[in-house]
């Protein structure tokens, strides 16, 4: 039942924040915080129940009939991987609400409604183990995100929102077709019509079909991830979204793509995934380098951060398809660490835009003297993003490279060049926006609310870097399951 | 006539009686409200006879009519849609000064025509039902007779319907000449594949052309945007739902009873019609600035999706085909009612609000109305939470299972394009606007909208009930002889 409540509480909170908006100005924000707090309590109880390391792969399940005509069930289940990602979702939900505290002044009720419903959709994606239900949540999280960008976004919001929706929706339809093809092929051999994950894991596909079906899933997930060549929606959507939207997009929504690869593509089609691995890994490596180069060429600070997201997600793609324990653990660590650091950087960019009314780094400069706290925080997360040892991102990227080196030396060496490009763009931000001559103007530094959120994110990043084992222990069971599947049925 | 036959005919009889009663009541006393309540009473009474008819179904009543579960499912759907349209009419025509009670007579007679069409088992009844429906529709379309647009739309529909009817007659004549029968079963029982009967095949294609006109399939669609735009909004809602659903229900009954699906040529032509309808409908919808025209083109695309389901599910199993069509039509009817209902609710007889600019900032001016319209647009686009998604899921499921990949690919392309223009409307609605200028919603229109929107949502979240209703509609006397029936795993048989 706890799983259902995890989804229901943000939904209810969203509904409550609508009338709250009519009642008082700040009320929707408080409602959202309260809903997230309840969800956080649920997540923490789940952590407490589990202990330091999960003994079994699946920690909790519910499985109810939903649409018997098609063998569709309302099947939710939680393992270490989904638990960590849901924790990240709720954590960044707080950040998104708090960083919108002063930025969003109009229609606050509807804003928080959309924010909470997006989060509910994402949590649903991380929990669903019926493929129809998964697709359902996958699409449900789109609409409120679309409205977030379309209503509260910046100058070019209509275009960005539309592009975001069409990219994800069309790729989602490809996934739906792949799901249906998988289900009906399974039906042909077993005579049972089922969308259940565990049932379909047993599906016996001939290699040709498996390859095509795997590609349908792969495209949907790499559009969301995103990886070259499906990334073009991301810079627009991230740049135009309001800060809270960018935080959710970069921190959580991108992770649903990576999660899909880990949860569905590899276990359902181990053979096809291994055949496809060189291409996917090459795509990952190209994403790392190409997006890093593009990031360097941006003058819009949000666009720059958006491209660095693509670059970091390249590591995830590389790690997932390398397919050994180290690389998979690295991919998960990168997801978590990037979620936190990208969210933080987008909050900085949002704060700067709120103060300076521009995202153009050429019009910044010398901010360090004017707002030293913003500068320090930016420096910390830039350094985290470039992969400084001792912080979370380093652990993730290091493990990915370590794992994939054993699989494909050439691609790994190529991808490692990204570690050279990352400092270039990261320090470039610091240099252009924070150093140099200060223009004579007043810039309000981070206040108590913003510093509080930021310090939490700093602590999380440092914790992931210094004690990664506390996270890795939760995903051990899942990762071992994946490597076992690959070893047994891969070739 | 036996008692059972009388029971089976009750829905028609009650509806006819209601039409007569309303007409007489108008002659005695002109009161818009009174006539409205009489109409609602008639529709509800007809609706309440459906369970009795179901108890004796399936039953052949004379040569002309077949009352079965399949037909009764559509009866319920059509009567509910007519009920919603009646509510919308009450709100829409409330300020009209002249005699405006007749709209309800026309509503009842055209609904009667639709019911007859759905239950017809004979070409004569097919023609009769279609004409009763169509002839009642002309004056409904041109009802706002002082304005030029409705008049133009009515005349356009009249002319082209006349043309379609003559196609239909000629086709029927050819079929009769070649096969010597007019009842669907007789035609089907003549056995041999249509390919060996060139005259009958030509006749079938002429009948298909007439049906294509009513369903506005490309290339018979040219009237659609003008008539949709010109007709008063509640009438457009009626045209888009009752007229389309009844004709499509008939298409399925007719073509499967006469075994048209045994003809490869025929299936190819249907597939081709589906593809061009999806592509042309969706592409042309991109260019529209009028919401009614946009929805007209989108309805062309939706009829294409339906045809994909028709062809693909037809290759698999007949009961699946009936289920797919019944579910999709129900979904489409509910959704279109909500969409056109929303247009109707912010328009009235004096002024049609159908430019996209009329909807700017609707989210802030009238949040509930905007929410209903958004919901219906998302349902048309096939996004989960809505019944439209489950409908599209059926089409995809049939297409994938039958491995008709070109058709499936076309549906994906069409849906992708569709999102763009549906979202354009949503974008217009979320534009900033001052909330001060609020729209007043007439309670009748509000009720109709609230109920349809709730149904769209409820059937989207818990579709099993509607699926059960749609699945219990195995129709026509010969259910077990689809050519592909023998192959239990359909894809393997091909």
TrEMBL record, chain A:
Subcellular location(s) of the protein: Endomembrane system; Membrane
Domain NADH:quinone oxidoreductase/Mrp antiporter transmembrane residue range list: 128-415
Protein's recorded name: NADH-quinone oxidoreductase subunit M
Species of the source: Methylococcus geothermalis
InterPro entries attached to this UniProt entry: NADH_Q_OxRdtase_chainM/4, NADH_UbQ_OxRdtase, ND/Mrp_TM
Biological process per Gene Ontology, one example term: ATP synthesis coupled electron transport
Keyword hit for Cell wall biogenesis/degradation: no
PANTHER family tied to this protein: NADH-UBIQUINONE OXIDOREDUCTASE CHAIN 4
Record GO terms (molecular function): NADH dehydrogenase (ubiquinone) activity; NADH dehydrogenase activity; ubiquinone binding
Membrane topology term: Multi-pass membrane protein
Signal peptide: none
Gene: nuoM
Transmembrane segments: 74-98, 110-129, 135-152, 164-189, 209-234, 246-266, 272-292, 304-322, 328-349, 370-391, 411-434, 446-466
Keyword Oxidoreductase found: yes
Superkingdom, natural source: Bacteria
Entry similarity comment: Belongs to the complex I subunit 4 family.
Cellular component annotations (GO), alphabetically ordered: endomembrane system; membrane
Keywords associated with the record: Membrane, Oxidoreductase, Transmembrane, Transmembrane helix
UniProtKB/TrEMBL annotation, chain B:
Topological relation to the membrane, as annotated: Multi-pass membrane protein
Reaction equation(s) it catalyzes: a quinone + NADH + 5 H(+)(in) = a quinol + NAD(+) + 4 H(+)(out)
Domain of life: Bacteria
GO CC aspect terms: endomembrane system; plasma membrane
EC number: 7.1.1.-
Coiled coil: none
HAMAP family assigned to the protein according to its UniProt record, in alphabetical order: NDH1_NuoN_1
The protein's assembly and partners: NDH-1 is composed of 14 different subunits. Subunits NuoA, H, J, K, L, M, N constitute the membrane sector of the complex.
Protein name per the record: NADH-quinone oxidoreductase subunit N
Naturally occurring in which organism (per UniProt): Methylococcus geothermalis
